[in-house]
């Protein structure tokens, strides 16, 4: 009996608290909580963005970095307000979605080839043919003339090459094999593109740290890792010959140059690969990471809050990219995103 | 005294007992049955869920899943053979490396070591069991791999390279590394359970055999024979851990979908592939194939367990003694 009375009192107290909370909110967005899930690669910058944005606006964004694949599943199931993926969705995947999804690229990332050649000073230079040959298992020793030819004056050892790849499905792998498919018809036909592929040669390490661990431990090893990871761990990385014929070091600037050079293609379809860009300054092995957003948000208020956040991330957010080793988007691509945001519709009218 | 005994001593009336038993006994029995059924229900649920999740892959590949060596997420062709092979090879190697020295250690700790030392040493061995697997993986990658690459593997290639088992480049990662790491991981299970079994068996048997004039070694043979079912039980538990180990193996096995006859070659196990690819598996069939791998791993564990149990029954002629019951 007593309990029942107390429960009733509690219920009343609660509904009053809710009313008070609603009344005290100046803007409806301040009460918003958004949830997202997906890619692990952009997690450091996303969590920074969410943190700063919460302090600024009170909008709380919860993000689970559970992997692009799981993120896509959650978007499909409608259990999150947005998803994140390192690989753009294919046409088939988009058709498979119960609701229309748009891609918003947020930052760029480069994939660097780290190597372990004891006694080597200066940067190793690699051509697309050499990289494909190594990962195809056709170039097996370091003094192969296809490598030596572009490294004049460098004494390359006769040691066997150990090509190291990611064993776990990852966006980094997707960027790397997208590049290989663009530069080699053979790769495209025999191996193809995906977050995990059937590797013709080499060994796999789990995560960037797994690949870097094997490369560091094994003289003669070469492996691909995120640029951010290679920089933080001061791994020697190869300069790669780009489409213009220059050997380019992977840096944030050379990655942004690659995004810039692809701006036109991105304006047509934001999912277009930016690897192997034509610009003379562009580093060729890079990609974008995406937010997956519903074109017609189920919840108009949440849709508006998300669009506001993305608009902020495109302006103030981009300034935080450099510190965290991500390549910022050039103005042309930010404009593409702003056009996408304007096209979002909630309950019949633009949500932004 | 008897007439003024406290209530505990008072003989209960028949009706009283029946009334209490009428409620308590069936309730007790029902509760225990519920627990027992619960264990089976969880197992059945695991199989059911795995089979349901694996349905698209089961439908697409059927039995070919077990014999195909193709694992290509891009072309959506999946076959479990390389991973089945990797799981069996690494587990077999771990058992070969771990069992003889571990049983030796257990005999020493139970029979020969001074009492205090035996207790301390087995405590330390059990401590080994509580180390998380990623620590073993890191050790395998950063300590064992360079040592294998520089010392062991070149020696194996130079001296035993005529066997296909020891051909290839000394990279330090692969089946050999994974087998050694697994052997160390399963050692505490074998040592501590075998020691307990030997302690439980040894006393009376040893005294009896010594009294009959047996030497120390002969008396040890008697206790070991009696403890055999229990020691086999310890090995089954260890094998279970080796089959299912994920993290440490993933870090040192090389993660390739090749079937390599050489122990220096790289491969992958079913558990490691699931751990590697599950989070980023975007296509329905890829996901289903990974779940089917879990189903296959489950089946392998069941089959090996059953085989080991049959082996125990066969070698002991169905005898169940102190050790068998332990």
Automatic annotation (TrEMBL), chain A:
Q: What does UniProt give as the signal peptide span?
A: 1-31
Keyword entries, A-Z: Phosphate transport, Signal, Transport
UniProt superkingdom = Bacteria
Q: Listed GO cellular component terms?
A: ATP-binding cassette (ABC) transporter complex
GO molecular function ontology, one term from the record: phosphate ion binding
Which GO annotations describe the biological process of this protein?
A: phosphate ion transmembrane transport
Stretches assigned to the PBP domain: 26-314
Q: Which PROSITE patterns match?
A: PROKAR_LIPOPROTEIN (PS51257)
Instruction: Please give the family membership noted in the entry.
Output: Belongs to the PstS family.
Give the protein's recorded name.
Answer: Phosphate-binding protein
Species annotation: Eiseniibacteriota bacterium
């Amino acid at each position: 009996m007593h309990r029942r009375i107390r429960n009733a009192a509690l219920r009343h107290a609660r509904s009053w608290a809710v009313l008070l909370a609603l009344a005290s909110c100046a803007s409806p967005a301040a009460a918003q909580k958004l949830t997202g899930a997906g890619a692990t690669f952009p997690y450091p910058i996303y969590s920074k963005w969410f943190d700063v944005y919460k302090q600024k606006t009170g909008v709380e964004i919860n993000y689970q970095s559970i992997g692009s694949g799981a993120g896509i599943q959650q978007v499909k199931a409608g259990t999150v307000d947005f998803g994140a993926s390192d690989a753009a969705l294919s046409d088939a995947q988009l058709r498979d979605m119960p609701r229309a999804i748009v891609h918003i690229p947020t930052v760029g990332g480069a994939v660097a080839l780290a190597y372990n050649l004891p006694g080597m000073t200066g940067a190793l230079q690699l051509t697309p043919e050499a990289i494909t040959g190594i990962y195809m298992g056709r170039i097996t020793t370091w003094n192969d003339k296809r490598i030596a030819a572009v490294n004049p004056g460098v004494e390359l050892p006769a040691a066997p090459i150990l090509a190291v790849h990611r064993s776990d499905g990852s966006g980094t792998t997707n960027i790397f094999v997208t590049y290989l498919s663009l530069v080699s018809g053979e790769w495209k036909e025999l191996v193809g593109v995906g977050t995990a592929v059937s590797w013709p040669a080499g060994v796999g390490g789990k995560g960037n740290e797994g690949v870097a661990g094997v490369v560091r431990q094994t003289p003669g090893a070469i492996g691909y890792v995120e640029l951010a990871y290679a920089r933080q761990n001061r791994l020697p990385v190869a300069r790669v010959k780009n489409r213009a014929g220059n050997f380019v070091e992977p840096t944030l600037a050379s990655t942004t140059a690659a995004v810039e050079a692809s701006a036109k293609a991105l304006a047509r379809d934001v999912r277009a690969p930016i690897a192997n860009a034509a610009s003379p300054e562009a580093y060729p092995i890079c990609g974008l990471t995406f937010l997956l957003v519903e074109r017609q948000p189920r919840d108009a208020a949440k849709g508006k809050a998300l669009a506001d956040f993305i608009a902020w991330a495109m302006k103030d957010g981009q300034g935080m990219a450099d510190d965290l080793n991500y390549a910022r988007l050039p103005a042309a691509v930010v404009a593409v995103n702003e056009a996408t945001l304007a096209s979002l519709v909630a309950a019949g009218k633009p949500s932004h | 005294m008897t007439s003024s005994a406290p209530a505990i001593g008072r003989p209960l009336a028949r009706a009283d007992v029946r009334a209490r038993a009428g409620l308590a006994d069936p309730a007790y029995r029902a509760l225990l049955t519920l627990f027992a059924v619960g264990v089976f229900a969880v197992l059945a649920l695991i199989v059911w869920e795995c089979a349901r999740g694996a349905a698209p892959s089961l439908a697409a590949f059927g039995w070919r899943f077990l014999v195909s060596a193709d694992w290509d997420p891009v072309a959506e062709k999946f076959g479990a053979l390389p991973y089945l092979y990797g799981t069996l090879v690494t587990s077999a190697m771990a058992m070969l490396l771990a069992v003889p020295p571990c049983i030796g250690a257990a005999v020493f700790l139970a029979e020969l070591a001074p009492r205090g030392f035996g207790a301390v040493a087995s405590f330390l061995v059990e401590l080994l069991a509580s180390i998380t697997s990623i620590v073993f993986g890191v050790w395998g990658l950063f300590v064992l791999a360079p040592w294998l690459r520089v010392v062991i593997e070149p020696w194996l290639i130079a001296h035993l390279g005529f066997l296909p088992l020891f051909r290839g480049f000394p990279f330090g990662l692969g089946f050999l590394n994974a087998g050694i790491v697994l052997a160390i991981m399963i050692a505490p299970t074998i040592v501590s359970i075998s020691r307990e079994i030997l302690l439980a068996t040894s006393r009376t048997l040893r005294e009896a055999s010594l009294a009959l004039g047996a030497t120390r070694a002969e008396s040890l043979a008697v206790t070991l024979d009696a403890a055999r079912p229990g020691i086999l039980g310890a090995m089954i538990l260890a094998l279970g851990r080796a089959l299912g180990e994920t993290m440490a193996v993933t870090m040192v096995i090389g993660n390739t979908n090749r079937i390599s006859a050489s122990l220096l070659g790289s491969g992958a196990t079913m558990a490691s592939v699931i751990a590697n690819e599950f989070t980023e598996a975007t296509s329905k069939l890829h996901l289903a194939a990974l779940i089917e791998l879990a189903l296959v791993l489950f089946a392998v564990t069941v089959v090996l367990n059953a085989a080991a149990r049959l082996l125990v029954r066969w070698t002991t002629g169905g005898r169940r003694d102190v050790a068998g019951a332990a």
